């Protein structure tokens, strides 16, 4: 009977701990001073916890090493020490992590969501047929 209880307890423990895995890509948008800055947090599970890198596609930055990544009791804490960046958030149902992004004395709300952020293509040299009317003006 004791063995069955222990088995059930350990089975439940493994199910609960696996349900809180945060591995994968998380994205969000920082909004400040009329600017929107996309951020991507790439989290990987390691043998002793988690590691992560951060991308800032709008600034052309990728693979920024997150020096500290912890996830305990549904709380995600990330630091990029050389840049003075810190993020703290609590995982919610539906795969979102609302929290606070801190850098340089500023605190900004940031909600991370699962998945890879896709930016729509906006070519600088449009190709016919244009999605708008054009008018040709001739001068004599």
Secondary structure topology:
Layout: H1 2-18, E1 24-32, E2 35-46, E3 49-56, E4 61-66, E5 68-72, E6 75-80, E7 85-90, E8 96-103, E9 106-114
Antiparallel strand pairs: 1-2, 1-9, 2-3, 3-4, 5-6, 6-7, 7-8, 8-9
User: What's the Cα radius of gyration?
Assistant: 22 Å
Sheet with the most strands: spatial strand order: 4-3-2-1-9-8-7-6-5
Structural class designation? mainly beta
The CATH superfamily of the domain at 19-114 bears the name Quinohemoprotein amine dehydrogenase alpha subunit, domain 2
| Strand residue content | over 45%
* CATH fold group of the domain at 19-114: Lipocalin
Main beta sheet? 9 strands, antiparallel
Account of the protein in words:
- This protein has 140 residues and is mainly β.
- A hairpin with a 5-residue loop joins strand 7 (85-90) and strand 8.
- It has a domain at 19-114: Lipocalin (Beta Barrel).
- Strands 4-3-2-1-9-8-7-6-5 form a nine-stranded antiparallel sheet, with no helix packed on it.
- Helix content is 12%, strand content 49%.
- The termini are far apart.
What does this entry show, briefly?
This protein has 140 residues and is mainly beta.
Which features characterize this protein?
single chain; 140 residues; mainly beta; Lipocalin; nine-stranded antiparallel beta sheet; 9 strands; 49% strand
């Amino acid at each position: 009977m004791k063995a069955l209880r222990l088995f059930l307890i350990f089975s439940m423990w493994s199910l609960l701990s696996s349900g809180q895995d945060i591995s994968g890509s998380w994205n969000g948008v920082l909004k400040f001073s009329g600017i929107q800055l996309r951020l991507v947090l790439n989290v990987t599970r390691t043998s002793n916890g988690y590691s992560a890198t951060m991308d800032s596609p709008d600034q052309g930055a990728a693979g920024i090493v997150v020096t500290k990544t912890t996830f305990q009791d549904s709380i995600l804490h990330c630091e990029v020490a050389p840049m003075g960046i810190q993020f703290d958030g609590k995982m919610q149902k539906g795969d979102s992590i609302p929290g606070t992004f801190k850098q340089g004395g500023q605190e900004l709300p940031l909600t991370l969501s699962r998945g890879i952020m896709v930016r729509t293509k906006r070519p600088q040299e449009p190709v016919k047929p244009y999605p708008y009317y054009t008018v040709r003006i001739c001068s004599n």
